[in-house]
Amino acid sequence: MPQRQSSSSHFPTCNQGILEHEKSDIIVSKQIKTYIGVEICHCIAVIYLFIVFLGLQPVSSGTQQSIDSLLSLAASRSIDTIKVLHLIRAAELLQYNNPSHADSISQLALSLSEQLNFRKGINYSLSNLVSLQITRGNYAEAETYNRQLMDLAVGTDNLEAQIKALNRASVIQYYTAEYQKGIETNIEILELLNNQPRHDSRLYALNNIGINYERLNEPQKALQYYHEALEMAVDLEEAYAEAAIAGNVGIIYKNLNQLDTAKHLFLQGIEAARQINNINLLIDETANLAEVFLLQNVLDSAEMYLQRSLDLAREINDQNGVLKAHNLRGRMYSQKGQYRQAVDALLLSATLSDSVGDREMLMNTYHHLQENYRNLGNADAAYRFLRLYSNLRDSIFDLDKNQQLNELEAKFQTAQKSAEIARQQIEIQKKNNQRNQLIGMVVYLILHRATIIMDLNYR
Question: What single DSSP character describes residue 247?
């Protein structure tokens, strides 16, 4: 059965700037007016905040209370744009360690920016909020904030800001499985980039169209955009993009059983990842290469690359990389006929998949477990994992089906509304015509009567 794609390299846009701030004025973007009474007090507060935020001191409960106190003081006095930027930077640094606190700080920064009519502060605060809500899985809220960013960008005719807002929209659409919308959004980006020297944005838009076509199970269309993106990445010497996109293309060729082509692409991805020493990409690409060797039944090479991927994943505590390695190891033991060892490795992969919430990998692992238990002659265990596999598969497919039905329903409702509006317009026009006819008749009768009276008087 087709294997799950590598998550880290599958959507490089997220790692490459959609969810990060662009560096400008100490603010990093992907995505108050505060004097504390006495100036020296303000300086001490800001220095202390940055010591904590930059990780020079662990964020203990006491430190957290100090941060809350400083922010309370900061909000209680007159405000200026520099302090808004400090707050935005603080929220960004707390995004992953303390998302709830980051949300509060971003909301405060947004409110103060609006009071100051500080456009840059508003943009950066909204960008932080979009990024934060995506990270937390609150996609509806992320979309709301992103619409505000798009409105601001369109209102100021800011092309760069429009592209960033569309990029964020495409991320949200990807994570909410709105793949067709994601394609349309990225095509809109390409249209905005016509005659523009923004090669990096074009590169990622092409890649993201490929990703969405892949999720729609249209591999040939995906390959068309992937190849164009990969060629551009090589020309621009963008090693990260080259590694990630080569992995995406390789996965499609692997699923199409064109294993030699897939192997070449994974090796290309490994070399590009080494150039920039990107451990996450190396974990993915070496695991992908191990899987190709496994499918070709070259088990020594499969085991070598599998162990490399596992060692790297353990080095940085990448649980996704570890669980994929154990899944591959279980399959390798199964091919060797060592079904007991295969079951042990697959059970570990299943536990890790469940703990990180990787439902597709868990489904895949259940499938292999039922096969190995069957080969061991354990019918009860084989049946149990077959049921688990079937139930999870149906659950995942139902989610996809529900998403498609929701999209169809939305389109139907839109069509209904359009038809209702058209019907109402026809009714209004009809009533207007009837009213005009009545007015015309009344005017005619008045004029006719006046003509008769004038004629009688004349006689």
Answer: H
Handedness of CA 9, 13, 19, 25 (dihedral sign): positive
- Into how many domains does the chain fold? 2
Confidence of residue 437 (pLDDT cuts 50, 70, 90): low
Whether 108 and 58 map to the same domain: the answer is yes
Q: Which residues contact 305 (CB under 8 A, 6 or more apart)?
A: 286, 287, 289, 290, 293
Question: 123 and 27, same structural domain?
Answer: yes
Q: What is the pTM of this model?
A: 0.67
The domain in which residue 172 lies consists of 1-176
350 vs 55, 313, 358, CA distance in Å?
A: 35, 17, 9
pLDDT, averaged across the chain? 78
Burial of 283 (0-12, 13-18, 19+ CB in 10 A): buried
Residue 1 confidence class, pLDDT cut points 50, 70, 90? very low
The DSSP call for residue 192 is H
DSSP, residue by residue, 2-55: PPPPPHHHH-HHIIIIISSBPPBTTB-BB------SSHHHHHHHHHHHHHHHTT
Give the closest residue to 11 by CA, choosing from 192, 212, 181. 212
The Cα 205–Cα 85 span in angstroms is 30
